[in-house]
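Lab notebook: predicted structure, single chain.

Context: the supervisor wants predicted structures on file for every construct in the current expression panel, including those that have not yet been purified. This is the next one on the list. No modifications to the sequence; it matches the entry in the shared construct table.
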Amino acid sequence: MVEPNLKNAAYHEAGHVIAHIETEEEFREVTIIPTKDSQGNIYAAGEVVPLSETIDYPNYSNLITICFAGPCAEAKWRHCDFFNCCSFSEHGDGYRAYELISEGYATKSLDTPDGKLPKSIRAASRPFKHRAECLVNKRWKLINIVAQTLFERKSLTIKEIGVIVEKFYE
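Prediction complete. Output recorded below exactly as produced.
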């Protein structure tokens, strides 16, 4: 049954989209057309910042918030726990966020002998997750509209999303 997964993916990606807009981080397109690695994607405008250079990136905290906003929106839509919607696989949002946080804490790896995240990284992630949850709650109506449109069309460009946002605020 693909449809429910696509609907979940639409809300997930809509969360990322609204976080991009709120943090003024550019992107060019969003899709819920599955790839081998994911159910959906946001395509950056311009070059993606390599992880090794992220620590010097001026909006480092925005990137972490954007990572968490997708799972937060999906969790709200599905009425489930954030950790059920946040992938910690190598290509997942959780992994990327924790990787960014660990860079900030000069931790070379997320791997620990017990398989758990270091307490310092878990603690450091709380403000970013909270910021993402607040953003999702504040913009929930807009996330709904973007998600519904994304579900219907499967892909949206930044221009198409701009039209949706303009109409929403009219």
